[in-house]
Structure formats: C-alpha cells, structure tokens
Amino acid sequence: MSGLLKLQNSLTGELEEFQPLEEGKVRFYSCGPTVYDYFHIGNARPFIVFDGLRRYLEFKGFDVEFTQNVTDLDDKIINRAKEEGLKPEELAEKYAQAYFEDLDSLGVRPADNQPRVTDYVEDIIEYVEALIEKGYAYEIVGEVFYRVREFEDYGKLSGRSIDDLKSGARVEVDVRKEDPLDFALWKSSTEDEPGWDSPWGRGRPGWHIECSVMAQKTLGETIDIHAGGEDLIFPHHENEIAQAEARSGKQFARYWLHNGLLKIEGEKMSKSLGNFEYARDVLRRHDRETVRYFYFSTHYRKPLNFSEKNLEDAASAVDRVYELLDRVDKLDLVEGEGEKPETPRGEEFSAKLRKLKEAYEDEMDKDFNTPGGLGIIFEVVKETNKFLDEGRDEDLVLARTAGELIGTLGEPLGLFQEDREESIGGVEEELMGLVLELRNDLREREEWDLADKIREGLRKLGIEIKDTETGTDWRVNN
RNA sequence: GGCGGCGUAGCCAAGGGGCCUAAGGCAGGGGAUUGCAAAUCCCCCAUCCCCGGUUCAAAUCCGGGCGCCGCCUCCA
Fold first, then answer.
1. Does residue A143 form part of some domain?
2. In terms of domains, do A437 and A395 share one?
3. What is the pLDDT of residue A434?
4. Could you check: is the Cβ of residue A315 within 7 Å of any atom of nucleic acid strand B?
5. Residue A141 to residue A126: CA distance in whole angstroms
C-alpha cells in the first residue's frame, strides 16, 4: 500500500492530500502554448514538469486523462503572421507543428486531448451566450465583456480583491467597460482578421475563454488538476475560474498547480524581455535527458536558473547513472534468473533496494519532490556500484534488478530510459573494433607508449575509450 | 504602493521543531584499485543571510532587519 500524494494547492495555499473526484481517475489540464513562435526553454518547464506529474500519477496507479490545449487563435498570432507574411492560420499551423516536434524531442508524451481553439469556436460562442444569460457578461457593440463585479469569488486564486487591483491598475481604461477590470470574452474582428459569425457580429474569442471551454469540454465541469506557469495566476487563471464557475455553478478545478519561472541571469526568461533561448536550440547542444534532469533537479515551484554550467552539471549527473546501467548490461546476465537472494550480502542488498524504492515514493509524494526522488535514485546507483565492486557470486543477478529499478524510478521523470549503446554502425564500427584489437595486442606486449598514443589520438577525435576487466569500451563524445 | 515567494557548502539542491554530528548531484583535495587513464569505492570540504524571541530542543516556529525574485500589463 503506497502512501498518499500531497500537492501544494495554489488555491488554498496549503499542502493537501490528493484525492481525485472520481476514485482512481484523474482529470488533468495543463495550459498549452499559443503557437505564434517556437517555444523557449522557459516555456518548456511546465511542459516537462507536468508531463512528469502525469507520469507519476500513473506510477501511483491512477488512470489519468490529460488535456493540453493549443491556442491557435490569438492577437499575437495575427500580429506575427503579418510580420512573417503568412495567413494567421498558416502561421499557427507552422508553429503548432514545431511545438509537437519540440515536445517529442524533449521526451514529453503527447496529451490525451490536444484541443485547438479554432475547433471550439462554436462552443465558445455558446459558452459566452450562457454567461450573458446569467448576467455575468454584457455586450457592447460587437464585443462581449465579463462582469467581474458579478462574480463573488473574483480574486480567490490570486489572493487579491477587486479594489486592490484597481488601485494598482496599470491597465488602460476602456471607457466602454462597466469596470476597468472587466475582460473581453469576445472581440470583434476587422475584415483582415480571422473571424466567426456570432450573435454579436463577426469576431473571435477573447484571451481567457478558450481554456475554460476546452478544459470543461474535454474533461468535464469540475476537473481535478489545473496547472500552468505561476505568471498565469493572474489574470489568466483567475479569469478562467470566473468564467467556468459562473457558468457551471460548480468548482472548476480542485487543485491548482503552478510552476516557478525559469530565470536567466537572475531575471525571468520571457519573450517580451528578449532574454530567451528556444528549446530546440538548447536541444542541439544537450540531449533530452540532460534537459529533463536539469528541470527535475529543482522543485517545480521554485525559480530555476538557466545556465550552461547547470546543464553541463546535469549531463555529468545523468552520465553517472548510465555508467552504472552500462556496467550492469555488460554483465550479460540471463533473463529471469535469481529473483531470490541466496547469500547474506544478496539479502542485504535486496533489502536496501526495497527500502530505497519506498524512500523514492515518500519523497515524490511530497508535492512531487523530484530533487528528493533523484537523490534516492543516486543512492541506488551507489549501492549497486558497491555491490558490484564486492565481486561476483550467485547473487550477481540482483544487479539487474537494481538496473530495472532505476528504469522504473526514472520513468516518471522520463530519465534513464535510453539504450545508450553506441552503434555508429557499418565500417566505422568494424574499424573501431580493429583499432582496439591492435591496441590490445600492444598492451599485451606492454608497449604502453604506443597503446597510449592510440588512446590519446582517439580522444582527440572525440572517441573515449576505457579498459575494463571485460574488454575495452568506447564511446563517442559530442 | 498591494499580493505572493525565496535566501542551506565553490556551484546546483533536498530537508521545514529532536533520527540534521544537514540527503543527493557537479566541481575540488586525499586514498584504494589500475601498466597508465577512465569508471568505481572510501575519506575530506556548511557555525543553514543577520539580529532578537519562543522552546528542554530551531536551518526548521514567531518578530524585526537586509538582500533577491515573481505577479498586479502580453507572457509558461
């Protein structure tokens, strides 16, 4: 019987035990991108982190239905399309494609539902009509606004009152609105802007409505988890709550989760500041597991500083695990043998593995504490190395159990899942075999100078070799 | 100005009243192993931002500083 997962709920500000509305089934919505550009490495944080949480929920045995929207209709898209000389829908399609590619490169599993705003315009119109009917929205010459004062709980997520907001408001006042804080549900479109016919004339949805609609359409009126970057708390998520709860009269999302922002040189990474780097560019320098490790090495709610040094450290850390996994593979252990330890040291090792697995879950259950979980994985690595250093006996197969455990514990993080066997293949592969064979002949004759010269030469070519009890291994460094 | 958060080793980062004589990773130093490397193992490397207070006991709670960050405007 595993423990209960606890999550820090932004709505209550407390660490709460996670219980889905329906036993065993989790309805999970995470804010997706507006596809007007490639996403940057800061945008990637929620994608990776909540992909991780989704996987961990499954690890815990939940059936998870996961929705992540694609906002393919927005003013930013319209503006960007003009710059690139494309139609808005062409531009959106281009970057939606890129988004899926980049997610795949990052090892993010596709969501179960990936609704696009343009497919939900009819639903949005109906939704807005319902809000008008209930008195939560009003039309002014072709535009519809949400009546913030009408929604009693307005501000409950971001912890502010309407009056606080007004005093600090930097919003330019639209004189037509009843209240400066009222926000657009529907905007009118000019001839050259994308538009749909509606009861209020030709227009398009406002900024926040799409998430409420698509979340509820795909997952139901009350969802379990709603997640996104902490910069979305206000106004985006606050407005989503206002729309959704006004319409359904029910709680919209039971657990609100927010990830901390990625910083670069101490400042938030953002498109408007221009201090960002595209995820796809980072992936040219670092492999996906390095990038994932980097994100999971800090708790998801905390700010995280992006730097090349941090990524390099992450790469070294990931390598340490693969060294061990590789070491286990090289043992050529037979499948299906040795489930039960036969020696005292085997017993002991086995018991340690069981304890570490529990410890991992204990850590991860504390608000998805991935740094804690990673710490445990490294303890498995150390224990297994020690176990192997002690020598070979009939319990050696337990090393395979340990290797599998690392795969199991790494799965929610999308780490340690790769088969890192180098196979550059073909002639090169055979050439390497020949070179190493020759070098080993030299070593046998104790012609160290020549053997070392070969090693050094290979190193300069980016090929690292190491001599082990079982032969000489090599790998290409990028 | 309002609201929220953060400050732990050279760097990254868990811990959140006693099991902390503070996990884990990276880097560094010493040792074992090795022909030498690499990998691995062992050892070393932190008065937990400052000042007060509560308590038998505080990195952990409270108060006050100082510093940093986010939101209040499109933003993950």
1. no
2. no
3. 93
4. no
5. 18
Closest residue by C-alpha to C1' distance, nucleotide B25? A317
Residues 217-236 of chain A within 7 A of strand B, judged by CB, are: 228-236
CATH number at residue A377: 1.20.120.640
Query: Looking at the structure, do residues A106 and A74 belong to the same domain, yes or no?
Result: yes
d(CA A429, CA A100): 34
Q: In the complex, which nucleotide's C1' lies nearest to the CA atom of residue A40? A: B76
Indicate whether A376 and A452 sit together in one domain. no
Q: Check if residue A385 sits with its Cβ under 7 angstroms from strand B.
A: yes
Comparing CA positions, the residue from A334, A324, A326, A321 lying closest to residue A396 is: A334
| A448 CB and strand B closer than 7 A | yes
Residue A349 inside a domain? The answer is: yes
In a domain, A291, yes or no: no
Tell me the per-residue pLDDT of A216-249, one tens digit each, with 9 for 90 and over.
999 999 999 999 999 999 999 999 999 999 999 9
Round the average pLDDT of chain A to a whole number and report it. 92
Residue A171: is its pLDDT beyond 60? no
Q: What is the pLDDT of residue A1?
A: 37
Is A277 near strand B, with its CB below 7 A from some atom of it?
A: no
In chain A, the N- to C-terminal Cα span, in Å, equals: 44
**Chain B nucleotides reached by a protein CB under 7 Å:** 1-6, 11-16, 23-27, 34-42, 68-76
Boundaries of domain holding A454: 426-476
Give the Cβ contact number of residue A444 at 10 Å. Answer: 9
Strand B–CB A313 distance below 7 A: yes
Percent of chain A with pLDDT over 90: 80
Give the residue ranges of DSSP H helices in A330-369: 344-365
CATH of the domain at A87: 3.40.50.620
Answer whether residue A185 is part of any domain. no
| pLDDT, tens digit (0-9, with 9 covering 90-100), for A320-377 | 999 999 999 988 776 655 568 889 999 999 999 999 999 999 999 999 999 999 999 9
The pair of structure tokens assigned to A423 is 């196979």
Q: Does the C-beta of A160 come within 7 A of strand B?
A: yes
Q: Is A11 in the same domain as A84?
A: yes
**Is A324 in the same domain as A365?**
yes
User: What ipTM describes this predicted complex?
Assistant: 0.95
In this structure, the answer to whether residues A327 and A443 fall within a common structural domain is no
Number of domains in chain A: 3
Same domain, A268 and A326: no
Query: CB of A392 under 7 A from strand B?
Result: no
Residue A103 token pair: 């997610």
Residues 6 or more apart whose CB falls under 8 angstroms from that of A342 comprise A394, A395
